[in-house]
Specification:
six-stranded mixed sheet; 3 domains; alpha/beta; Helix Hairpins; Nucleotidyltransferase, domain 5; two-stranded antiparallel sheet
Length: 403
């Protein structure tokens, strides 16, 4: 029997399915995004004896359902699909059905360039959902905090300067109680000391120092109407920020528990000295995953993490360019590891300093160090072994040379 492959173009309400064999379309249909539709899709693929289904999206509900049903799913990067369209058309037309056909053909002819999806464990997928959601909330918090900072700069700079972090719980409580200069007009040392005690202030500044910082900032000149409007805006932004900060705290606690309970957790936790780095360790684990077959060599991991450059060579031109197509979450986590390690690990510091000495800027030097770290991480990950500085040969040789 001829081998059959399928392409599935996903959409929010309706998907397009095309089944091919030897380049011929055997079937083409629309799949409604509902429980009945997805169940019918799985049944149809089984009854049609489809060998593989090609899809652009490497995760999501439909992908999970196909994998759970034992159907082989092929991940096709959107850039690969875009580059392949012209192989199957003379004009510049494009449609969902055509994309599904191209996906099905790629699953038939280009499997040497593609890979079958092999899902991670349930624990790893849960950790990935937690870390990515936390990152989304942090981005929202930063945006709101920037808006709050801009409002205070416009009419009350002292309130911004009194505490180190504007989005810290105590700073938000202060702004909730004193949202404008008029509200803080009668604030004295004794009252501020009471506020600090009630809110568990852990900084090293006295009430007198904090009050002096508040009073020494420039005074705004907003009129009564503008000041009242900005006061209302400050209260609105604080009301939006407070629950966001609390939910980030709760998610961070949940992530810490999940990564410590994960079977690979100690591998990634061992890379950091600071216990507060548990979120970055969790992000590394969540994005790399626990399926060792996904990255058979460290080179594939370095590429997907955006640490390996892309070579552009033509004639006499031969340059290395920044890699844009990569896992952005993993790239950010690797950069945090590289940047933090150069301050305490002599091996990491040496790689970073030598990169800077060659004329590379800070981000480039961090990527060079990140790539070196990924080679170590890949070996630890494959061997299921935590990082032990005393077993790090390059580090120990460097220390021995320094005496």
């Amino acid at each position: 029997m001829e081998e059959r492959t399928a392409g599935l173009d996903l959409a929010s309400e309706e998907h397009r399915l095309v089944v091919v064999a030897d380049g011929r379309r055997l079937d083409q249909r629309r799949i409604v995004h509902s429980e009945d539709g997805v169940a019918a899709l799985v049944r149809h693929l089984r009854e049609s004896r489809v060998a593989r289904v090609a899809i652009e999206q490497p995760n999501g509900l439909v992908v999970d359902r196909l994998l759970d049903a034992g159907i082989a799913v092929v991940a096709v990067h959107p850039n690969q699909l875009a580059a392949a369209r012209d192989r199957y058309r003379a004009g510049g037309g494009k449609s969902d059905g055509f994309d599904a056909y191209v996906l099905a053909e790629l699953a038939r002819t280009d499997m040497h360039r593609l890979r079958l999806l092999e899902p991670d464990s349930d624990e790893t997928k849960a950790l990935r959902a937690l870390t990515r959601t936390r990152e989304d909330l942090v981005e929202q918090k930063v945006a709101l905090a920037n808006q709050l900072r801009a409002q205070l700069d416009a009419f009350w700079p002292g309130a911004r300067a009194i505490f180190f972090d504007l989005d810290s719980p105590i700073a938000l409580c202060f702004l909730e109680r004193y949202p404008s200069p008029a509200d803080a007009r009668s604030l004295g040392t004794k009252r501020l000391a009471g506020f600090l005690a009630r809110n568990g202030y852990s900084g090293r500044r006295s009430a007198e120092e904090l009050l002096a910082r508040l009073r020494s900032a420039p005074e705004g000149r907003a009129g009564d109407a503008e000041q009242e409007a900005r006061r209302a805006i400050v209260l609105a932004l604080v009301a939006a920020l407070k629950p966001l900060v609390e939910q980030i705290r709760l998610l961070t606690s949940q992530i810490a528990g999940a990564v410590r309970a994960h079977q690979d957790g100690q591998i990634f936790l061992s890379l950091f000295r600071d216990p507060k780095s548990v979120v970055t360790a969790a992000e590394l684990l969540a994005e790399i995953g626990d399926n060792r077959a996904r990255h058979p060599t460290s080179a594939t991991l370095e590429a997907i993490a955006g640490q390996a450059p892309v070579t552009v060579q033509s004639g006499k031109k031969n340059v290395a360019c920044f890699r844009w197509a990569c896992n952005k979450n993993l790239r950010a986590a690797v950069s945090v590891l590289a940047d933090s390690s150069r301050h305490h690990n002599p091996w990491a510091a040496d790689i970073y300093q030598r990169a800077r000495a060659r004329g590379h800027d800070h981000p480039h030097a961090i990527r060079i160090l990140g790539r070196a770290w990924l080679r170590i991480i890949w070996r630890l990950w494959q061997d299921r072994t935590p990082y032990d500085p005393d077993q790090h040969g390059s580090r120990n040789r460097l220390l021995a040379a320094e005496g």
